Amino acid sequence: MPGVNRPxxxxxxxxxxxxxxxxxxxxxxxxxxxxRIHFSDGQIVKQGDLLFTIDKRPFxxxxxQARANLETAKSNVVFTQSDLARGQxxxxxxxxxxxxxxxRAQAFRNAQASVAANEAMVxxxxxxxxxxxxxxxxxxxxxxxxxxxxxxxxxxxxxNTTLLATIVSIDPIRFExxxxxxxxxxxxxxxxxxxxxxxxxGTAVRLKLLDETDFSHAGRMDFVDNV
Length: 227
Fold this sequence. Notes:
The protein is of the alpha+beta class.
């Protein structure tokens, strides 16, 4: 394929740099002491594999407390609802004033709001407990661990979180190369098959590694960057 061989010469001359398509820094979303490490440095990991475990006990305690508070709030709803129902009968009989009845109605509404707030706290506590297990977000090769077991890990969404490891994708792989303006114009014309300057995006290419003699690796040019 002539259209493939011409860009191959470009890649051969430019000595491309091999870079991963995806690079992910593994950082915790919650803070705590690192309890376990579940991989070996340089290992190939699959998306979803367990990498690190942060000590779960404080987060489990928080979840248990949140669930207990929720049960208390639900019990208060039952009580205030029953009290409000009794108040409806009493206010019709003019045994209690309208003001007392409104106070009972307000207490019932507050109890319902408390249940909603405690349900949100339970969901957050469950989420924090889930975040104590750090799993691989992509498939690729994981580098060396940056923190050893027993150290305090700083998590969250801020800029001071602890870097635990880095994962790079290995399939597919990307090649980056540079060339001067003259080479760019020349190969744009070659790729378009005319004297007009066109784009290189989508152009089929073949390349070889330094210890290979044939252009046996096929690929496609993604884009031409501005720098």
